[in-house]
């Protein structure tokens, strides 16, 4: 059972966060750091229960849920360290009797809206940075995953993080629009941080515009995965499996389009299909050996099905999979398509499911043109053994994150975010805390 909050609870949460901000901002960085560290320790102590909550909420395999909890906890550990490393500057201007100082101060209350696919990691990545900076937060988790957000709040409270600093307002999908609008337009809120679809992100940007709030947006992607002739096939297949099928294809950095050069194409497709059959096991997330759980709901299955049917009707070939899985209405078979062309839906619409479409190409220029022919740019991957080509392609891909001969790129130490309509700002890393800090210039005269 979980509360279904409405606009009045959302406003009350913002008020509580604002009141808590007035004292939280005065807490020393060392003390904030130590509270975040205690929260991290509690996450580690309770990691098994937290992982089970995530699997129960979303169906993802327990092993992946464990991985997510560790990844989430590491954000708290990281930002507990970064909290003590917020520095300012002193600038010497031409005026001899003045000094210029730059202070970094917390932005204020942050409204945080998160998706269901990495419920815990999306929260700690944002809340860890916000609290480290001295901000307080109101979190609206996705309808499907409120329990992980509430469990994190319980642990935050046990860690000694004061009431009002981290507030959660779970709400049903029917209330999401109003609750989202209430927290994103409230004058007491100074910052909006959102992870989710580009469509919702644009709505929230409109909300932010009226009162000119700071925004961070982590939105959808359409990641290209390019395999050049010089690539090592085994490495490329391992990377393709990892980047495509994590969380059954439901991550924003999942490869969406495979571009494979003519010379290596047949070998790659054959090895990829064999690896999929050998390594991917669809099943109940709680069962040992399951690598692919259900999709989040039947609508998600319909989207994959529609993309497969569209591709096949336009000439694509099903190499493996291609239909719903007999386990139930929310399951879809891991699917590999070849002979894919750019007029097919799956090459320009984010799939968010276990579908790998392969497009054949001839030249590097052609691959880059296809990869960049989209208005989003989150992650991109490519496999090549040619050092000059590696530099050229890494620099030319219009994305925020590049995996070179690597399919798994996320790490708390590295900046996560996209270009174009994939978002604004970066999370994690030494840059993530800046999203919650204002610069104040102080001109100190009379020297
Ligand atoms: P979504 O539909 O945009 O939902 C994300 C969150 O926004 C949920 O909490 C949702 O609430 C809420 N929401 C929906 N409509 C809203 C509105 N009008 N006003 C305020 N809040 C609203 O996205 P999703 O389906 O959960 O997640 C999938 C998308 O997220 C994909 O496009 C994926 O690429 C992207 N994503 C991006 C990143 C990244 O870091 N760039 C990471 C993960 C996912 P309800 O759950 O109640 O609908």
From TrEMBL:
Q: Which EC numbers does the record give?
A: 1.2.1.24
Keyword Acetylation carried by entry? yes
The record's GO CC annotations read: mitochondrion; synapse
Tell me which residues this entry annotates as catalytic. Answer: 218
Q: In which pathway does it act?
A: Amino-acid degradation; 4-aminobutanoate degradation
- UniProt subcellular location: Mitochondrion
Q: Where is the Aldehyde dehydrogenase domain?
A: 2-442
Specify the domain of life of the species encoding this protein: Eukaryota
Pfam families in the cross-refs: Aldedh
Q: Which keywords belong to this entry? A: Acetylation, Disulfide bond, Mitochondrion, NAD, Oxidoreductase, Phosphoprotein, Transit peptide
Q: How does it assemble?
A: Homotetramer.
Protein purpose: Catalyzes one step in the degradation of the inhibitory neurotransmitter gamma-aminobutyric acid (GABA).
**Protein name, per record:** Succinate-semialdehyde dehydrogenase
